[in-house]
Amino acid sequence: MSLPLDDRSLYINRELSWLDFNARVLREALDPRTPLLERLKFHGIFATNLDEFYMVRVGGLRRKAAAGLAEPYADGLTPTDALDAIDRRVRELRETQTSHLRDTVLPELAGRDVRILHPDELTAEQWETLDDYFETQVYPVLTPLAVDPGHPFPYLSNLSLSLAVMLRDAERGDEHFARVKVPKSLSRWVPTSVPTHFVPLEEVIRANLDALFPGMIVVGAHLFRVTRYSDLDLSDGEHGDDLLAAIEEQVFRRRFGEVVRLEVQTGMPSHIRQLIIEELGADHEADAPGLTPRDIHEFDGLLELGDLITLAQLDLPDLRDPPFTPVVPRSLRTGGNFFEALRSNDLLVHHPFHSFTATVEDFIAQAARDPHVLAIKMTLYRTSGDTAIVRALLEAAERGKEVVVLVELKARFDEQNNIAWAKTLESYGIHVAYGSAALKTHAKTALVVRREAEGIRLYAHIGSGNYNTRSARVYTDVGLFTASPAIGADLRDLFNSLTGFVRERPYRRLLVAPTSLRAGILALIDREAEHARSGRGGRIIAKMNALVDEQIIRALYQASQAGVAVELIVRGICCLRPGVPGVSDNVRVISIVGRFLEHSRLWYFGNGGIGEYYLGSADWMPRNFDHRVEAVTPIDDRSLHPRLGALLQACLDDNRQAWDLGADGVWRQRHAEEGEPERSVHRILLGDPWGLAARSSPREQLAFWSASAPS
Fold first, then answer.
1. Is the pLDDT of residue 65 over 70?
2. What's the whole-number mean pLDDT along residues 629-640?
3. How confident is the model at residue 380 (pLDDT cuts 50, 70, 90)?
4. 587 pairs with which residues across the strands?
5. Which of 12, 184, 397, 521 stands 20 to 30 A from 148 (CA)?
6. Is residue 3 classed as helix, strand or coil in its secondary structure?
7. Which residues of 193-218 are buried (b: 16+ CB within 10 A; e: fewer)?
């Protein structure tokens, strides 16, 4: 007998699933097949991921636990249960990371003459170089802060490294406490006389504390770091009519959020640690939860491991992934008019394997210069600043075109950047809208309005990735360029709803959140179940970043029970449990973690042999369905379907970067069987952006797409 679909054992805890994802990131750092500097990079990514997890998710759970909220989630864990489980898992992962860095990666780097040195290891020549660097570059920046009745305990900024310094007066013998911040404005890795030998900045400062405290004896100096709760809270209704001002105020308040984690290096005396804990507690608001033992993390080794990402950028090609040149789609290689190309055929792109510059950026740049273009409308969720897209929008405004940009001010940790660019865009006369406090505009859309001989024509781009030049080099994202009148009209209506007062009406082709996306996906899943029950087979392949929504998970369970083959490619969080007898026998879940960050959202529904594909901005999470503006488009041009099918197939066939999720909730990495070639989807796509050559046999293609259930 199968379990009822509300049984808590069928749902995996969201936070623990995210930690499993970060463990897969860490595994890339541990994998000897990964080039050495790339392993160092993955160590840094693992650490920065964990920082954000504590700033947002753990911070939120601590508040719920402190408020006495004991209602369990779908998986049965209460906030307190989740915090305890998170603490156990994080300590396990951090111990793995610390020991691997100490015992494997750093020694292997030293074997290639890349070293992170302690001052005790320096030669006289290296000391001379460091002394000069300290005197000229570091000393002028430092501000020692004493703690005594006349000097209160200093403010500790989020994620900042600090030295807790114990001093003794050389004459009177009494002891004092001071804090020295390790400045973020300076490079963490101080070069020595050998170009690939570095000393951490905090060690340079620690070795020169006498210069900061003349007449005092330095008894000890111990490194520590704080993490503050950093999520924005607009739920209190205080934003009034000025969302920009409200976000600016919230970003300012974030600096003073309660401390949710204290990291200290091994060896810090207990009385110093207790002093820091007490002072941090005194700094909290009255209703903010204080630090508990699970919030104190002690590590033997480096803190702030996210800075390893910069060290991983050393120009040592044999220790890094080989460089690659993105492909320009065939229809654009002649350098002709983008709009003429789109009048003939829709265009699919897959970044970073297709050039972002020659496609997305050039689309906006041509629109800015084209005398027939009347208007450009875009959503900007995360932009990388002074990029070709922003410059093109400014040029379009200067040329007198109507330019409308929806800037999402609430894009987490990009708020200040987006506020600055919103003001710049407005200063050029561009119409800037900020959306609403209740909904984030997460859609990735652009619309160009062009006057042609036949009348006004609309050209659209809808994608899964941000209009961000930097992330387009490392995030895998798909996008559609089209001159479809129906999709263009839908985008026109969507922009009108975002910038004005418009009564919601049905969209022609797009699935849009929060209006039609949830219902649309549920209908597509239910249709596959009906096909399966009627003997026509049923198949769903869905690629996304996260699967959390309980209603969608139940629908997938019901589809599996009806006989639908459900294959999910989920990079990060997956709360669905596959392979449970009688419930999810027909569900397979894989995750791909590797050189590029899997970010594309792409879905296939078999539809009784008349397959349909959708791509867009939405993951399958409650926030994407209910609290964000999302846009997902069908791929109506069936000549493009083989490309998307080949991409999904290449992902499902991966035996190098793919992990399988078991019914026990454990992720297991795939490995090529003896005699089997290693298939890394990222390596395949570097030379073949859709993976079209991954299976050359028509028989294999037919077997793959006619399968009624996963093997």
1. yes
2. 96
3. confident
4. 566
5. 184
6. coil
7. eeebbbbbbbbbbbbbbeebbeebeb
What whole-number distance in Å separates Cα of residue 471 and Cα of residue 461? Answer: 18
Residue 98 CA to residue 46 CA, distance in Å, equals 12
The CB density around residue 155, as the number of other CB atoms within 10 Å, is: 12
The answer to whether residues 46 and 26 touch, using CB atoms and an 8 Å cutoff, is yes
> What's the sign of the alpha-carbon dihedral 447, 413, 682, 576?
negative
Token pair in block for residue 387: 């990029």
CA atoms within 13 A on the CB side of 635: 30
> CA 404, CA 190: separation in Å to the nearest integer?
45
pLDDT in tens, 330-369: 888 887 789 999 998 999 999 999 999 999 999 999 999 9
Contacts of 525 (CB under 8 A, 6+ apart): 540, 552, 555, 556, 558, 559, 564, 605
Contact 494, 632 (CB under 8 A): no
Token pair belonging to 618:
């939405």
- CA distance to 103, 193, 247, 311, per residue, from 316 (Å): 22, 18, 42, 11
The span from the CA of 377 to the CA of 242, in Å, is 22
Ramachandran sector of residue 579 (left: φ over 0; alpha: ψ -120 to 50; beta: rest)? left
Range ranked top by mean pLDDT from 120-134, 213-227, 239-253, 448-462:
448-462
Q: What is the mean pLDDT of residues 222-244?
A: 69
The backbone torsions φ and ψ at residue 624, rounded to the nearest 5 degrees and listed phi first, read: -70, -35
User: For the chain, how many residues are written?
Assistant: 711
Nearest to 566, CA basis, from 577, 683, 67: 577
* Token pair of 60 as six digits: 């939120």
- The beta-strand segments (E) located in 108-181 are 115-116, 145-147, 161-169, 175-181
Of 431 and 256, more confident: 431
Other beta carbons within 10 angstroms of residue 174's beta carbon come to 8
pTM of the complete model: 0.92
What residues contact 580, with CB distance under 8 A and at least 6 apart?
Answer: 2, 3, 10, 663
Q: Rounded distance, CA 58 to CA 83, Å?
A: 7
Phi, psi of 451 (to 5 degrees): -90, 125
Query: What is the bridge-based pairing of β-strands 444-452 and 373-380?
Result: antiparallel
* More reliable by pLDDT, 407 or 443: 443
Question: How does pLDDT run across 260-289, given as a tens digit for each residue?
Answer: 999 999 999 999 999 888 888 766 665 678
In the structure, what pLDDT confidence band is assigned to residue 711 with cuts at 50, 70 and 90?
A: very low
Q: Are 294 and 62 in contact (CB under 8 A)?
A: no
Strand 587-592 versus strand 455-463 pairing type: unpaired
Q: Give percent of the chain with pLDDT exceeding 70.
A: 90
Given a contact cutoff of 8 angstroms between Cβ atoms, the answer to whether 446 and 376 are in contact is yes
User: Which residue of the set 197, 222, 354, 442 is catalytic?
Assistant: 442
Q: Identify the bridge partners of residue 456 per DSSP, sorted by sequence position.
A: 451
The sign one gets for the Cα dihedral 552, 553, 558, 559 is positive
Find where tokens 């042609």 sit: 452
Judge whether 442 counts as a catalytic residue: yes
- The mean pLDDT of 123-145, rounded to a whole number, is 91
Both tokens of residue 319? Answer: 């220790």
Tell me the HSE value of 682 on the side-chain side, using a 13 A CA sphere: 21
Mean pLDDT of the chain, nearest integer: 89
Beta bridge partners, 502, equal none
Q: Of the candidates 525, 536, 535, which has an alpha carbon nearest to the alpha carbon of residue 558?
A: 525
DSSP letter for each residue of 577-607: -TT-TTTSTTEEEEEE-SSSEE---EEEE-G
CB count within 10 Å of CB 702 equals 10
Give the pair of three-digit tokens for residue 83.
């915090």
Residue 44 DSSP SS3: helix
Between CA 470 and CA 692 the distance in angstroms is 27
**Distance from C-alpha of 453 to C-alpha of 679, rounded to nearest angstrom:** 50
**Could you tell me the CA-to-CA distances from 462 to 264, 347, 364, 484 in Å, in that order?**
46, 11, 13, 12
Does pLDDT of 709 surpass 50? no
